[in-house]
Design goal:
The protein is an alpha+beta fold. It contains ten helices and seven strands. The protein has two domains: 85 residues, Winged helix-like DNA-binding domain superfamily/Winged helix DNA-binding domain (Arc Repressor Mutant, subunit A, Orthogonal Bundle); 130 residues, Muramoyl-pentapeptide Carboxypeptidase, domain 2, CATH 3.30.1380.20. Helices cover 48% and strands 14% of the residues. Strand 4 and strand 5 form a beta hairpin. The relative contact order is 0.13.
Amino acid sequence: MRCLGISPIDIGTIPVVDRPPLSDAEFSSAVAAVTSAFGDPTRRAIYLAARDGDAGVTAGEVAERFELHANVARHHLDKLAAGGYLDVAVDRPENSGAGRPSKRYRATEKALEFPGRRDDLLVTLLGRTLALVPAAQAEAMAEEVGQEYGLSLAHQMSPGDTHRSFRAALHAVADALTAHGFAAHAEARGSSLAIVAEQCPFGDTATQHPVICAVDRGMVRGMLAGLYGDTEPATTASRAQGDANCVTAV
């Protein structure tokens, strides 16, 4: 008897991956990432359209197909790109003449499933290593690594793009951080804007070695540099220090 086209022999050949269950924080983080990317039904349909077409889609094509304003179509595509579900490339057709080249969005190989647990051994090793380095030097190194990674993420999200408005860039940064396990959002804090992260992918290691928190501050700095321009993000609250959330003010 076959069910959904899979025979008992087929099932027997599927490798079983023995993974420990997600912790509460990891589960919440994974749910936040998927919900942020696919919580909107139109965005889900746009992702399927990009996935099903080998050539991908442009904002103009999405706007026409789904009867959206071009800016709305671009917003949905950029949110999917920030989550790592779409790759972005500058579309430069031959003999295109003057004018701004369009961006083409193609589905990535990122699986739509809850991720496996982070590698606790490596994170613990990182924390122990940073503990052997003078605090100021360790913090500077952690922020530099985060900044370089954030800048590379910005280039992937918007290759060849001109800088966005500050608010649009900040929301894109929050989406990318959410996809990396931070469950982040942008909000107003007094006279400035801030990135608020409700989860931390580094877990207990960040509590034991708060210097690791400089990594996400560096990611914010790097992504904003690539999407908007140079900024000076500052950590104003930290879960590792006992605060309810991590807050990076910009």
